[in-house]
Every structure is written in structure tokens, then in C-alpha cells.
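Good morning C.,

I know you're traveling, so I'll keep this short. The sequence:
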Amino acid sequence: MLYSLRAALARFTVRRAAACQRHAPRRAVLWLRLGSAISPAFAEVFSALVHLRRALDDRWGALGAARAAVDRFPGNPDAWMLLGEACQMVFRQKEALGAYEQALALEERADAAMAAGELYMRAGEPADAAARFARAYAAGGGAPALWSNAQALFQAGDTRAADEALSLWATQVPDGMERLAAARAELREVKRGS
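The C-alpha cells, ready to paste straight into the viewer:
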């Protein structure tokens, strides 16, 4: 009973925040802070608070809100994903990567694996990126995960595996077989340019 009441109150604060967000954004933040304090589980209120703080150009406040969510719900992969996004807002790539890896440790998720893979690519670690993109594909990431996997494998120097990933990618996109030669050329061009 108390759980249901607290959840309903948290949803109410999200609606109140949405109603006053345009004309009184600071009041909306207060509503969302109240909602996050009373919410019995990780819910929409935490994401709304982080994104509103970001919209108000309070990136550090967004990071603080995301950290508070992780502190309260350390076993929730959505909380870790939110922390990863907030860390990226303040250009803390290593912390963001750690958050995405923690989300992956809790649950196999395509979005967490893709985000981690992109950060590994930016850090110049294509082999680790390729492993995360492969996990993203296995978790349901589809053709975008295969394309990113092929890019990372090619950057890592494993052209045979990259070609296999590209061939599989071609089976999953419209006109993929016709586009396969151009895709291979594009990967080679990207590697030459880097």
C-alpha cells in the first residue's frame, strides 16, 4: 500500500513538473527533486530530473542527480545508464564508460554495449570496442551494431572478422548485398584517413 502511494506521488510530481517546466523551470526542478526523494523505485522521475537540469545548463546538477539515483538503486541498470549519460555531459568519459560497463554487468543490453563501444573507439581501443559492439548485436542491437563492429574490427586490424561482420550486416539491411562493395571501400577509406 505504502509502495503504491509513494509511486503514485512520484508520478504526480512528474506531471506537475511537466506542467510548470516552461514558465517556471526552477519550480519544476523542485517537483522532480521531491519526486525522486519519495519514489520507491527507479522511475521516470530520475531521468526527467537529469534531463531538465541539462536543459537548464546545469550539467553538474544533472550529474549529481544521476549519482544519487545510482546510490539509491545500485542494482538497476537504467540508473547506471543515466549516470553514463550524465558523465558524458560533463566530459568524464572514463566514468561514463565505467557506468555503462556496470549496466552491462547487471544486464545484457544493446544500448549499454553500444555506448561503451563508442567510448572505447574514442579512446583508441578498437579491439575492446569491437567486443562491446558484438555484445550489442547479441543483445538485439541489429544492423547498426554489426556496422560498428565491422568498423572497430577493421580499425583493430582484423580485416577477416571485419569482412564477416560486414557480410552479416549486408543480410540485414535493404539492398545490403548491392551496397557491400561500397561499404568495404568506405571502411578502408576511414582507416586510411585515421
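Safe travels,
E.
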